[in-house]
Fold each of these.
Amino acid sequence: MKTIPDLETHLFELIRRASTKLPADVTGALEAGQAREAAGSAAATTLATILENVELSAKAATPICQDTGTPVFYVKHPWDYPVRPIREAALAAVRRATKESLLRPNAVDSVTGANSNDNTGDTFPSFYFEQWEEPDALRFDLLLKGGGSENQSAQYSLPHGALKAGRDMEGVKRVILDALVNAQGQGCGPAVLGVCIGGDRATSYSLAKKQHLRPLADKSSDPVLASMEEEITQKANALGVGPMGFGGETTVLATKITKAHRLPASFYVSISYLCWASRQAGMSVKGGRVAHD
Amino acid sequence: MIDLSTPISEAAIRSLRVGDVVSVSGVAVTARDTAHKYMVERWIESAPFPDSEDGKLLATLKPILAGGVIYHCGPVVRQDEKGKWHFVAAGPTTSSREEPFEHKVIAALGVRAVIGKGGMGEKTLAACQEHGAVYLHAVGGAATLIAQRVREVEAVYKTEFGLPEAFWQIRVEDFQCVVTMDSHGESLHAKVLADSRDRFNEMYGL
């Protein structure tokens, strides 16, 4: 496949879109939540403020949230398009976006505490490269996931004594809902949940996070998981945590669940809590043409 | 809507109750993890020499923090050609990380209002009650909206902490928040947590 000229410019545009524009399905779900909450309640007022901010950010082309998070790049490429120029273009785009106040300088050296000031550092930003069979085509998905929501993400190891959660699907549901009770308003709900049942610790977490790329209306192709997605969202909204933890009926906008084979000895459930500011953008390249979603 | 202007009196704080919607105007100072650790270690738990760097910064910020507002925020900023800073996006950060520090800051510096998100714990609630302070909740993620309420960046200190962690002294106008922890021992966060935990336990017969 021929190298894409100006890949950096296209990736800069991808970052700009992700940081300043909320996907339409998320805005729609927030509006539905606002309509569901009692008029004049703290929940309804909060959702109205959130929606006002979403509109203002798109107009002003400024970040929806000041915590522009860890940029996570999911890249699909054919065998004959090397990873290195993609990574270099992405790093350059991230540095430029930081300079232009579309990203907050967020990369902090974990030992010295020094901020690199340009959003690059040890494995920062984050990349997932996947070689696909599609010839002459690239796919980019960018997720900007804030720290407040990442801090509320959780990984449980079943069985869990205090919650009486065993190694079965009832136990899985129990720990997911427990994570939401623990999160309260700290992760900036209403949340979009990504869940992985099983896998080793690292795979489990990364698959849970990857669920955030699925559109809100997408249902798992596995009927058991599809019905669990529905059930978790419904039960979560009966917990009464509400937007920003103010109480109310809108705690979760959608739940996306996947599974991975596990060892007989291990049973992890990983929950990736994504804030309402579910910032992501996609871009496809085919036959030399670049198209943003 | 209740107006709060800095410096805020104790009487104004004592009249506020959980659920009140307030509009804050005046000077606020941003502080997050590094700044809180610094305030406690360098100003409160050890008295700095007046002519040391720490002592000078304390002398500069103490009059602003007394009766003043701390905002848990790490903004996205922009510097113009003349070197003047502007807030581009400035929503609140999660306040619970400052729980080990905030009660000491309230007690020692006389801060009257702490703005953040997600609420704080019992130590802060007790300090609010004892010293006459409130916790104000801003909408998490409402960064462009809140940045537009920041009329001027007056000064910035400790940029070596990293731009999100620095002390930003800002002038705000009509910054709307909800009182979620008052000076009478009430916390909306404690209430919603207890209520949702009850519902969870009921759901699963725990």
Amino acid sequence: MKVPVFALCLSPALLLVWKGFNGGLGANPIEFITHATGDWTLRFLVITLAVTPLRKLLRLPELVRFRRMLGLFAFFYVCLHLMTYLWLDKFFSWSEIVKDVVKRPFITAGFTAFLLLIPLAVTSSAGWIRRLGGRRWQLIHRLIYLSAVAGVIHYYWLVKSDIRLPVFYGAIVGLLLAYRAAVKLAERRRAKSAGSPPVKEAALTLPG
Amino acid sequence: MRIKTAPEIRSSEITPKQLYVNRRRFLAGLPVAGAALFAGRALGGAKLNGIVKSPLSTSEKQTPYSDVAHYNNYYEFGTSKDQPAELARTLKTSPWTVSVEGAVNKPRVFDIDAILKMAPIEERIYRHRCVEAWSIVVPWIGFPLSALIKQVEPASKAKFVAFQTLYDSKQMPAGRYAGIPLPYVEGLRMDEAMHPLAILCVGMYGEVLPNQNGAPLRLVVPWKYGFKSIKSIVKIRFVEKQPPTTWNIAGPSEYGFYSNVNPEVDHPRWSQASERRLGEFLKRKTLPFNGYADQVAQLYTGMDLKKNF
């Protein structure tokens, strides 16, 4: 099951390559690639965040096995997005890049979103869960919430007038965060009434 | 024995040159371009005759027609670059009138055919620089705006010329999501409007304008950012005070009235020092006044162009 899902996750990138060779990127290919890789970063962040609620709602606990792959694909697309900017937009002019990150708030937000994903990508394997211990690993991986929010802000601050898509992504990320907040609240209430410390959710299944 | 001769190929069957040259891109864009061909509108229109060449044209390499006709900012027909080529099919460009009003001695409602006959139409190959930091080179077809202005005789108190685009929610259903107030309005100072470089444009690449490029009549002011070259004009009004302009209303700190191309004045969110010429890989340095400094810089002597951005 992992192979077809992997292929599916890779297909947007493959489609971009195919379009590149067949004139399908339009009149401004670099702009097209920048937008497409940015879109797919956000989509994979959202999909990754949606795994836990979907597991519960659809009663499909095995969905968690794909969560690491989905999260790593978000990191894959953000790397493509960043590389397009660094290379094809700025041609590795580091003084220009630093100026952008410092002067342009939407780029600061985007760069922040990227930085927040690095520790997640690095510690994504089962070995790291063991090394860090489950609790610390979970804390680090909560950074995905911040990264998704920073990503939405990056998008919202860069559009010129049509805010529909950034608002839409923001609403979805908001909903997914609200779900987790609700779960957390429910857990605390249950623990209080039972008089014992909160039971750790079994979401820390070692990804297969 | 009768030797059959090969049937003559009718000229209507000859593949248009730009289609042949860009056939790969055409095939890739078949859902859009193919449908447009059948609709007979978005991919080129009637040929314009009697076009006079102009010494004001640049000899730089022209951007392919298919790029210019499929990469558009025309928010009334969608806010993605590829949408206007599809959605602008609903624009009805005939009949079309342009109302000239305000501080003029001879206000008039012109029919588009009268405008086409107003002055000899010229080919003006201009650099066109978008505020988004991309640029193209387009062989526009039109005549100097000054020809119309002289005909209507503006009063001495007319210091500015205001323009307005059509806004019809039935023809432009995507307009409600444009995110900018519509109808789209723009304006020029009188001396800018009278400048020989400023043209009323009726065509491009030897043909009438495709809908998505601002048919049937648009402005082209090549030394300013592209959003000042207002599309699909229905009203021209001569006024005393500096008129409101849509992008300045939408983003007053980002889009000024003058919006002269200026590499030294950044957009708050991005640098204007360089631009991507469509079709090129490396970026180019942006030139002051989009390379038309020799012709227009004198209009702004003494003006602080950082304040009057």
